[in-house]
């Protein structure tokens, strides 16, 4: 076994010349053996080709019990292993408020040494997000605030790529209880991921000294540990050996025993007492034991007077400066803080090393021999002097080339004095903290700036900045600060005031206070002069009202929105936002599709989102582009919706936004994939979104949005009980959210689930209530809330005549809306409550319409229903054609339940299910292309069949495949395929 170190501060660390430790550790054999075994396992399994071999080893102890010595020895053992890469970091008592301090120590040396080629491989697209956080590059003045979860996701990616390239990797973190919250949060998460990598994590901390907000992270880390060692006090024999090694072999047994009794076996207290005994030249004999109590009290207290007498005023002042800096102390910086020249500072360091207070670290900087010494010296600084020195330290850090990220922790410790320069620096520091994904640190800076206080002309702006900084971490603080900013008479300029109001309404809305959000915008709009700002507030008022679960006068709001949009031209961005809101309103009301799409086109610029309505633009938030995409989703423009939602995911990933924004984007993509019939892909996106939603909070609208569509997807895949269990787990059941709307309509989805489970009476009750509420609000969209068709299905075995009436009404609503998918689905459901020839007629019309839409699963369902109806009518040949086609499409969709049902139908017909073929989503076959070119020119199916000399049914089949692959109906086919949409002469009319 390699040479061991003593746990005494003087021996547990490098001596004055940074030589190897001089005395062995006592009573730490088990802990060191555990560390060595973990290193052996890591290296041997990696050499044998293992990759998922990570482990977490913990050492916990009260202060002064030698955990740092154990870690130093494990670090030394690891550094002797070839090819181990050893990364080291350490929490600092003074640096707990310095974001990413520990991670910068750990990762900056290795990541900063990567070649340019390695950097590209290790960082991928995360360099602009992770780089500023760990100090590789300074935060840019143009950077947007980063999502903290996005930074953590980026760190996960980087370490996952780095570990195999520097394997086996050993990460050692000491004083974890003092780690900054940003570093600790990531380390707690990475502790679970590390087991899948060739990484050994070794953490040490003082049990019971984690801050209140960090205790859950401590528990998370301990839950992941392979082993946790709690270091116990030394026994009398070990203390006796330490006494004799320091004072001579002739030390009396009684004297040694008394040293142990006074220090309770603490290695640090033992060394401190022995240092006092040595300096007092006290003989280690029994008759001198009474003096040990006073010496121990003096050594343990280490007051201002104690250090002054030991070090002298000049050396003590340098020690104070070092204590202010904490860890990784730069000698020149400490000298600047205490106003010492190079020669004087060098002498101070020499004295502090001689007294075993400071030591040199392997990186060339200074550190305290033991953290307790740093704590003692810091506490010995008179309070007024300490405050002043922090102010000097902040300036010295800046003058030495350091950033305000480093200087700000010193500024936080200064006394308020109305200094405008301090306010300016704190505001700039807050901006830099936001730019590296540390909003809590930013908020601390702005809180301190408000206490300074700022000039009255700036106070409202600082309140506004504080509110924005707290947006991701403390919505309540955001509301409070923005309200205060808006209440000040000498406050924000008009543009800032409008922006502050919008942001206040946004955070209220996201907290479920949609009525208050809407009223906030209405009240401010009433006092704002006409213009773009006022229109922005009016639009926001309508937007938050539209997301409310309940509304007193939905038709009235719709009329008001219509009046607001009547005279707009679309020249201003706020006008385009109003067009988008109007399109969504008409979508929910079930107004004709062409009117909806016309308004959407007016909201866009050349068919694309304008920059001001972009997904990451804070002027409007992500709700406006989502409304555009949802309008496309419910009007069969699924290819356009999918493109829009793909852009959202990409933008959020590039920006490192990994919270609600990306979760919502995954939900939207899952929704549109579900509508297109790509059920397996829909399920994947929705489950990804669900995982992200679980990071935020339980029972939030986003989570229920996802759960509702995921349950619908599982129903389509034939997994009814799994859908039910999912809803039970996430409490997806009435009354859902008290104030916010869940989309698509949650009660309708819940009624559909009850119907799938055979609870017809429960489904009737839910769906009847839904219909009454939505009709009162004026919302008649049969795709958003297909309650009527499902109510007809639920009523069929209970009250057949009523079921047919309801189904007829559902078809009427769908025809009024005008999308092929809405009408086709409603007809399929209507057919289910009839029998005989009428059923076949309805299903044939349903299939005809659905072949013109991009909704693959609905078409498969209708084809199978039609095949079954034809079989019952005795038309076996026609039945087989539709059943085979429906089964093929259902297989492509991932609708396993529908496939099984179709196979049963074929078996009942005496037909043998054929070998299923897989359709390509990425390209059209040549026969499909021939049909598509003619359809894009407006040629009707009958003429296409005649011109190509094929059966009409074959044309319909090929058209269905074309629409599904292109993700659009007939009206968008030409554009989707890049074909001219002008009808050829004479081809757009029937014979």
Automatic annotation (TrEMBL):
Compositionally biased residues, Acidic residues:
982-991
Q: Does the keyword Transmembrane belong to this entry?
A: no
Query: What Gene3D superfamilies is this protein classified in?
Result: Tetratricopeptide repeat domain (1.25.40.10)
On the tree of life, the source organism's domain of life is: Bacteria
Q: List, for all copies, the residue spans of the domain called Orc1-like AAA ATPase.
A: 36-202
InterPro entries on file? AAA_16, P-loop_NTPase, Sig_transdc_resp-reg_C-effctor, TPR-like_helical_dom_sf, TPR_rpt
- What SUPFAM superfamilies does the record point to? C-terminal effector domain of the bipartite response regulators, P-loop containing nucleoside triphosphate hydrolases, TPR-like
Q: Where is the composition biased (Basic and acidic residues)?
A: 24-37
Which keywords does the record carry?
Answer: ATP-binding, Nucleotide-binding
Region (Disordered) spans which residues?
1-37, 963-991
Annotated coiled-coil positions are none
User: Is Nucleotide-binding one of the keywords UniProt gives this record?
Assistant: yes
Recorded protein name is: AAA family ATPase
């Amino acid at each position: 076994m390699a040479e061991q170190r003593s746990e005494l501060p003087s021996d547990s660390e490098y001596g004055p010349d940074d030589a190897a430790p001089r005395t062995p550790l006592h009573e730490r054999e088990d802990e060191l053996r555990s560390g060595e075994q973990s290193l052996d396992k890591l290296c041997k399994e990696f050499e044998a080709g293992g990759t998922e071999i990570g482990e977490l080893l913990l050492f916990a102890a009260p202060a002064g019990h030698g955990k740092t010595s154990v870690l130093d020895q494990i670090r030394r053992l690891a550094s002797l292993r070839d090819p181990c890469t050893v990364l080291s970091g350490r929490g600092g008592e003074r640096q707990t408020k310095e974001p990413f301090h520990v991670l910068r120590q750990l990762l900056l040396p290795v990541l900063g040494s990567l070649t340019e080629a390695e950097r590209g491989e290790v960082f991928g697209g995360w360099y602009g997000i992770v780089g500023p956080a760990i100090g590789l590059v300074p935060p840019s003045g143009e950077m947007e605030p980063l999502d903290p979860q996005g930074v953590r996701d980026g760190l996960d990616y980087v370490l996952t790529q780095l570990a195999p390239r520097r394997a086996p990797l050993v990460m050692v973190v000491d004083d974890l209880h003092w780690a900054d919250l940003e570093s600790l949060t990531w380390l707690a998460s990475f502790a679970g991921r590390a087991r899948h990598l060739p990484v050994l994590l070794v953490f040490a901390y003082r049990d019971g000294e984690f801050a209140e907000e960090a205790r859950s992270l401590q528990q998370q880390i301990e839950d992941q540990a392979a082993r946790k060692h709690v270091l116990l006090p030394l026994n009398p024999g070990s203390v006796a050996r330490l006494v004799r090694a320091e004072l001579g072999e002739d030390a009396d047994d009684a004297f040694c025993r008394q040293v142990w009794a006074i220090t309770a076996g603490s290695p640090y207290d033992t060394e401190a007492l022995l240092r006092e005994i040595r300096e007092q030249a006290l003989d280690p004999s029994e008759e001198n034991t009474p003096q040990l109590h006073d010496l121990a009290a003096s050594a343990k207290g280490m007051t201002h007077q104690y250090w002054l007498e030991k070090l002298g005023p000049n050396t003590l002042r340098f020690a104070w400066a070092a204590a202010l800096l904490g860890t990784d102390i730069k000698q020149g910086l400490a000298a600047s803080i205490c106003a010492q020249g190079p020669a004087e500072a060098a002498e101070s360091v020499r004295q502090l090393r001689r007294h075993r207070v400071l030591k040199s670290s392997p990186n060339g900087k200074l550190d305290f021999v033991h953290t307790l010494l740093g704590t003692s010296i810091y506490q010995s600084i008179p309070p007024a002097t300490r405050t002043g020195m922090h102010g000097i330290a902040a300036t010295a850090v800046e003058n030495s080339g350091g950033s305000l990220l480093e200087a700000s922790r010193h500024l936080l410790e200064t006394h308020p004095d109305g200094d405008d320069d301090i306010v300016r620096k704190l505001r700039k520091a807050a901006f830099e903290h936001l730019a590296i994904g540390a909003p809590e640190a930013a908020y601390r800076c702005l809180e301190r700036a408000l206490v300074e206080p700022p000039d009255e002309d700036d106070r409202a702006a600082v309140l506004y900045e504080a509110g924005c900084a707290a947006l991701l971490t403390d919505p309540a603080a955001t509301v409070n600060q923005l309200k205060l900013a808006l209440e000040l008479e000498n406050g924000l300029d008009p543009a800032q005031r409008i922006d502050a109001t919008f942001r206040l309404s946004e955070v209220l809305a996201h907290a479920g206070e949609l009525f208050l959000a809407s009223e906030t915008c209405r009240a401010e709009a009433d006092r704002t002069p006409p213009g773009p700002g006022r229109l922005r507030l009016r639009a926001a008022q309508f937007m938050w009202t539209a997301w409310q679960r309940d509304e007193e006068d939905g038709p009235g709001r719709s009329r008001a929105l219509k009046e607001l949009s009547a005279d707009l031209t679309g020249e201003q961005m706020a006008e385009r936002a109003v067009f988008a809101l109007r399109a969504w309103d008409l979508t929910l009301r079930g107004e004709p599709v062409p009117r909806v799409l016309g308004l959407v086109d007016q909201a866009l610029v050349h068919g694309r989102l304008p920059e001001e309505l972009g997904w990451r633009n804070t002027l409007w938030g992500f709700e406006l582009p989502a409304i555009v995409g949802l309008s496309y989703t419910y009007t069969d423009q699924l290819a356009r919706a999918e493109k829009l939602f793909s852009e959202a995911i990409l933008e959020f990933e590039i920006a490192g936004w990994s919270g609600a924004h990306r979760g919502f984007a995954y939900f939207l993509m899952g929704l549109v994939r579900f509508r297109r019939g790509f059920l397996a892909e829909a399920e994947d996106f929705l489950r990804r979104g669900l995982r992200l939603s679980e990071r935020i909070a339980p029972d939030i609208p986003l989570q229920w949005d996802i759960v509702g569509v995921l349950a619908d997807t599982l129903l389509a895949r034939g997994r009814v009980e799994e859908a039910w269990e999912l809803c039970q787990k996430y409490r997806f059941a009435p009354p859902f959210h008290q104030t916010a709307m869940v989309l698509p309509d949650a009660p309708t989805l819940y009624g559909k689930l009850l119907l799938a489970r055979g609870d017809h009476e429960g489904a009737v009750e839910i769906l009847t209530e839904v219909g009454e509420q939505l009709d009162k609000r004026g919302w008649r969209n049969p795709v958003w809330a297909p309650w009527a068709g499902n109510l007809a299905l639920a009523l069929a075995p209970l009250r057949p005549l009523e079921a047919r009436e309801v189904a007829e009404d559902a078809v009427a609503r769908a025809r009024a809306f005008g999308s092929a998918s809405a009408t086709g689905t409603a007809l399929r459901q209507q057919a289910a409550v009839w029998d005989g020839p009428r059923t076949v007629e309805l299903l044939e019309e349903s299939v005809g319409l659905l072949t013109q839409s991009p909704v693959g699963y609905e078409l498969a369902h209708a084809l199978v229903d039609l095949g079954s109806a034809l079989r019952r009518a005795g038309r076996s040949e026609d039945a087989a054609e539709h059943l085979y086609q429906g089964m093929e499409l259902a297989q492509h969709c991932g609708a396993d339940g529908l496939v099984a049902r179709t196979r049963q139908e074929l078996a009942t017909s005496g037909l043998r299910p054929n070998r299923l073929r897989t359709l390509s989503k990425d390209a059209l076959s040549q026969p499909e292309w021939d049909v598509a070119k003619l359809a894009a020119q407006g040629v009707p199916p009958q003429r296409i069949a005649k011109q190509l000399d094929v059966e009409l049914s074959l044309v319909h089949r090929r058209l269905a495949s074309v629409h599904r692959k292109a993700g659009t109906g007939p009206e968008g086919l030409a554009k989707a395929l890049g074909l001219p949409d002008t009808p050829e002469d004479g081809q757009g009319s029937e014979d």
